Amino acid sequence: MTITVNGRDYPVHEAQGEMRLIQFIREDLDLTGVKNACDIGACGACTLLVDEQPMRICTTRVKDVAGHRVLTIEGLRGDGGGLHPLQQAFIDAGAIQCGFCTPGMVLTAHALLLHHARPSRAEIRRAIYTNLCRCTGYQQIVDAIEAAAVCYEQIPHGIPETLNPRP
Ligand code: FES
Ligand code: FES
User: Fold this and answer.
1) Ligand 1 centroid, distance to 155 Cα (angstroms)
2) Which domains are present in the chain?
3) Which end of the chain, N or C, is less packed with Cβ atoms under 10 Å?
4) Tens digit of pLDDT for each residue in 119-167?
5) Rounded CA separation 64/6 (Å)
6) Which ligand is nearest to the CA of 38?
7) Which of 97, 130, 138 most suits a substitution to test ligand 2, by most atoms within 8 Å of the C-beta?
8) How far is residue 88's CA from residue 141's CA, in Å, rounded to a whole number?
9) Residue whose CA is closest, atom 3 of ligand 2?
């Protein structure tokens, strides 16, 4: 079987298929942006996008995403490989302290904005409701997502070149 991570296909043998996806992503692929915290699917720190939808991967097996497109925080890039506008918005709004929740929070927000370019603050809060942040406070996070939404407004269908993950 094969899984596609950040645009690149990875063949997966049978034993790897039974691994937890978070272990495979962090240890086998060395993509350590995704965080492991509660380990029971409750906090959102391990959120990735699978086919542009948020998924918590601490309770997911590799084989569960075979044939699907996985996006990690490492695959989210802006123009010229720099910071994605959503990442920059988190910095500008002071929406990061320890950063442990940030990859999952950013990817959850990315999924929201891909499908809903002008969400209200209430809709933003609903989208990140189950992504827990213990130190920043949610006000700045909502501010960041609201500010970044303008970058997604020009998307008629799908993801424009500048918002595409780099393979
Ligand atoms: S580490 Fe997966 S939801 Fe908390
Ligand atoms: S920035 Fe520390 S948990 Fe959110």
Assistant:
1) 31
2) 2-75 (3.10.20.30), 79-158 (1.10.150.120)
3) C
4) 999 999 999 999 999 999 899 999 999 999 988 876 554 454 445 554 4
5) 17
6) 1
7) 97
8) 12
9) 133
